[in-house]
């Protein structure tokens, strides 16, 4: 803020606040609720809020694991995972699946969720979730800092190869985001946000105004 009273810090020096504002600022974030299967056949399920979509063609989504966790190990071993939409009715179950369980224990069982078979990948889907993306690994990247040193964070990127959508969320062929009641991760250890019809608004892009011509063929998708 030019001329304002600003809290400034160099990240190497620390934020100097009661809580790190980093993920409260970059928030709320959609949740990558990721199911995988180990080579031995044990199902695994965990939420990852360092998550987003990155490309329309091919359809790519990604999430980042802070530390080498069971989810990343399973994706590396099998090349497959499923993304499940975390919704308000499933919030408490989603939270249970973040428990640090040994790789031999199945988070579906401990959270009371149903592991439904997928169609194109071996990882199961969360049966109770209204939307699932079946994904195949495209890149597993160990992240580095500006010093070029390897961090303990891994970015998993996968191509969505199949999509399941509860018909109730399709209104005249249009997916109704708010009707799905997705939950998002906000700042602080326990903060979440929800999406409702009231909290949504529309805005037409300049290139999509009647007098403008869009420059990119699939721009209107974003
Ligand atoms: C809403 C939510 C979001 C989370 N986001 C991340 C994340 O982005 N990256 C991460 O490494 N852990 C994240 N966690 C913690 C993991 O879910 C947790 O470490 C889990 O035990 C990992 O399971 P796994 O070892 O079976 O993969 C998150 C937890 C919650 C509740």
Automatic annotation (TrEMBL):
Domain Flavin reductase like residues, every copy: 26-177
UniProt-listed Pfam families: Flavin_Reduct
Coiled coil start-end: none
Annotated region described as Disordered, given as residue ranges: 202-222
GO molecular function: FMN binding; oxidoreductase activity, acting on the CH-NH group of donors, NAD or NADP as acceptor
Recorded superkingdom: Bacteria
InterPro entries given in the database record: Flavin_Rdtase-like_dom, Split_barrel_FMN-bd
Compositionally skewed regions (Basic and acidic residues) per UniProt: 205-222
Name the record gives this protein: Asp/Glu/hydantoin racemase
Lineage of the species this protein comes from: Bacteria, Bacillati, Actinomycetota, Actinomycetes, Mycobacteriales
């Amino acid at each position: 803020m030019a001329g304002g009273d600003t809290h400034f810090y160099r990240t190497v020096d620390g934020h100097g606040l009661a809580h790190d504002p980093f993920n409260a600022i970059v928030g709320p974030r959609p949740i990558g609720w990721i199911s995988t299967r180990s080579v031995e056949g044990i199902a695994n399920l965990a939420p990852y809020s360092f998550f987003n979509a990155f490309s329309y063609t091919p359809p790519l989504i990604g999430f980042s694991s802070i530390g080498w966790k069971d989810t990343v190990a399973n994706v590396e071993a099998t090349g497959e995972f499923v993304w499940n939409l975390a919704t308000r009715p499933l919030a408490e179950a989603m939270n249970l699946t973040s428990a640090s369980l040994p790789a031999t224990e199945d988070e579906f069982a401990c959270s009371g969720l149903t592991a439904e078979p997928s169609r194109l990948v071996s990882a199961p889907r969360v049966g109770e979730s209204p939307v699932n993306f079946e994904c195949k690994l495209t890149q597993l990247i160990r992240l580095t800092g500006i010093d070029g040193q390897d961090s303990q964070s891994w970015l998993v990127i996968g191509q969505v190869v199949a999509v399941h959508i509860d018909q109730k969320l399709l209104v005249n062929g249009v997916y109704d985001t708010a009707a799905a009641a997705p939950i998002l991760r906000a700042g602080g250890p326990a903060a979440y946000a929800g999406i409702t019809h009231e909290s949504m608004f529309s805005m037409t892009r300049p290139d999509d105004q009647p007098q403008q011509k869009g420059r990119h063929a699939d721009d209107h998708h974003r």
